[in-house]
From TrEMBL:
InterPro entries: ATP-grasp, DcsG_Biosynth_Enzyme. Residues 93-290 form the ATP-grasp domain. It comes from Saccharomonospora cyanea NA-134. Keywords: ATP-binding, Nucleotide-binding. This is ATP-grasp domain-containing protein. GO terms for molecular function: ATP binding; metal ion binding. It comes from the Bacteria.
Amino acid sequence: MTARVLFAGCRKLPEGSGDEHAVIRALTDAGVESRWAVWDDGDVDFTAADLVVLRATWDYSGRRDEFLAWCDSVPHLRNSAAVARWNTDKRYLLDLAEAGVPIVPTDLVEIGDTACWPDGEYVVKPVVGAGSLGARRFGPGDRDRAAEHLRDLHADGRAALVQPYQAHVDAHGETALVFIGGVYSHAFTKAAMLTGVHRDGTGVSGAEKLTAARPEPAHRRAAEEALDAAIGLLGVTRSDLLYARVDVVTGNDGAPLLLELELTEPYLGFAHADSAASSRFAAAVRAQLD
């Protein structure tokens, strides 16, 4: 009997960004039936699939509870509902820091609390949010505007993180290291998204620019260690994770720091990887079916 795999997208991107097209072809060549489906489409029976892969569910941030309830309802989901529950709230960064992972310094500002603003430039972002949505970069002397943004997030029912901006990102970007089935696959560089500070103090969000990369050894070690810490916290093995993307930056002191650990629906950058990366992902999908 042919295995059936569904790749979960959202209504704005029902077939993702196009990055997985080669993966679908590789699965077809291997005799695995695969197609895209919108995660909140009530006409799709996700329970009948042999595997459902979270890929482009990028509209969840405004209705996370609904999304997580759907995740709980899907019996064969990767990454799992438990992983999604932990990873879709950026408080997970504090869990990793407590486990000894060097992260970008992060202060959690719960709803109703006031922030302790860093010196220099800093970023204010919601604890639940996809990409740079809701993230703003502020300069010194812009605390009133930062406080206004924080109030807006709180009024919307969202706690926030405050992080000192790592200036190295402006010139060198972030390094995104991709793991497939727990094994390092490839990396790409993401140019700075919050590319400056307006005169009014709010961050300027630029278009995302991606290029293939060979990570520095220190960045690779940092990514491996962050992933190991995460599986320890989650009580899973590396092979339980169909995919992971670890975003590492160089901190202001020159040492690598974890910016994000994406285990739910990250862009995986197959377009910026070697030609075998899509086949590696297809093989990992087949291994999950086994």
